[in-house]
Amino acid sequence: MIQAGDSSRLGARARAGGVNFALYAGAAERVELCLFDADRRQTACHDLPACQNGVWHGFLPGCAPGQRYGYRVHGAWDPARGLRHIPAKLLLDPYARRLDGEFRWHPALYDYRPDLGGGPRRIDRQDSAAHVPLCMVTGDAAPARHRRPAVPWSNTVIYEANVRGFTMRHPEIPAAERGRFRGMSNGRILEYLKALGITSLELMPVQCLIDEAFLAERGLRNFWGYNTVQFFTPDARFAAAGTDPAEEFRQMVEAIHEAGIEVILDVVYNHTGEGGANGPTLSLRGIDNLAYYRTLPDDPGHYVNDTGCGNTLNTCHIRAQNLVLDSLRYWHNDLGVDGFRFDLATVLGRTMGGFYKPHSLLSRIAGTPELEGARLIAEPWDPGPGGYQLGRFPVEWAEWNDRYRDSVRRFWRGDADQDSEFAQRIHGSADLFEASGRNPAASINFVTAHDGFTLADLVSYERRHNEANGENNRDGHRHNFSRNYGVEGPTDDPAINAVRRRQRLNLLATLLFSQGTPMLLAGDEFGNGQGGNNNAYAQDNETGWLDWQGLDDDPEFTQAVRELIRLRRETPLLRQARYIHGRMPTDGGWCDIDWLHPDGRRMQPGDWNSGRRLALLFSTRADQVDESPVQEAVAVLFNASKEDAEFILPARMPPGWRQLFSSCPENGPAGESGRWSVAARSLLLLRSEHVV
Question: Domain 11-136 belongs to what topology?
Fold first, then answer.
């Protein structure tokens, strides 16, 4: 017989002699715990016998790990007042650690029947149990076995990848591992990532998700994963059938850690896959709709849609905050994740008045002791009012910098009046981050990401080609700042292909020679493309999967990317731990930064935005005296114009400049010492040292 239990820890917790069940449902009148066998037959139902501060709880003697269960929550069903309780819908435990089965789209998932005549909604009492996963009781996780690489921010190079997309077409991964966590931790993959030189693997969402109904109707799946319905369980699609996805995920993290690489997880705490008012009732909506979702203050039947996905998590409610924090603790401490990239992170700091930097959820995430040391990376925008908040997150956070992306793309595309903006971005975007007390690492620099063109497509297409998504090519970014250099899409023209290849090198070299934290998109290092689709969120197929053939087609390009990453790692002047303005003290001496005109003089106000040609010069001295010799200097010469250029480096620098990297084989010394030829649309990295 079920007994009163413990309300202090939500979820199903196995203890001596049984299992404690606890569920927050603050507006419920009654909560049923329904038990199922391995064949999905309901074997028993128990009313949770006690409620404390909205937490319904009970201890079930004889229950053990492996027991399948779900909840039926009784209470008012009045959508106009934001109340969506309906016991016919079997609900996922938000704190479950494992699920059995998958979602199957069926009218029973909805709590209402639409009135085709335009009248009020009618309740739908079909039982949904046959169409949703079942929760499973698990034992407490074993002590964490991971040894974190602990990479300093100034050394970090992030690599964004999709578990399925990265592994599905890899020729050396067994078929049983493709698309799964085991594939991502395959030895061949880890050898490749180590050889590439990246430090941090950022995985796109893997938490339990549901494919949107409209995608299922088109025969498509949610490939990117930004439609989470349960924040604790890895989705079973990434694990072998019959195994525990959480254990497979943890084993993957351990293997990646053994390779010396961090794991950053992209997480979606801004909305859930239950969608808007017309969406399915799967978990939070039927448990406590008003606690977990934000609704209009004077019309609780309508959801606030600051995410563009139908609903917005009510991050001002303590229970919603606790759900997010408990989930983060679990992934960080139990499963080994080193950091998190927060999708549409502005939502986490939203009140009804808009974004609020001191928001309690942002403060709690940064101040939770169990998350100390975890990387916190914000996508600092959402589609809601005032949703663009780049540079405005608290000091503990780094942020995706789309202004960097757009500026670097436009500069190399040859747009006019880009020099000064470009200089600010490759300097680490001090104008955005320094005033808040942050350093250059707070700027997550990228030129491509999962959302948008791949690097190969960026230099091959001027228009999006998203017809396969089934939205009449209306979805995806319109303003890509891309260029096809004469032909839309693939071409056999060697001149066009040569320009495209050089521009890809220019963009990646700029990324890795910029101050800040670089992030590469998986596959850009070997020319992966998506046929011009810049919104491949539904392309869980060969469009979205990486084509590894590029490694064989142009191995020199991949080797050049490895060299760029190595140069960044071995050249501290390219990755300063603080912003340098003019001459500033550093450990053991002084560091200078200069922006130079091609003729060698410092850039003057009238020089900016005049020629798409400039040089960035970093140098160090042992002391502050002007006459003291420069110990080391690094120069990056940028020529985004269509004409060749000659650069003169200052005579005050050490002699004997050495070429470290060039995106064009024609670049090199131009006769006299300190003169360098830089071909059109190319760059050059030089280094000089004072020899005592």
Answer: Immunoglobulin-like (2.60.40)
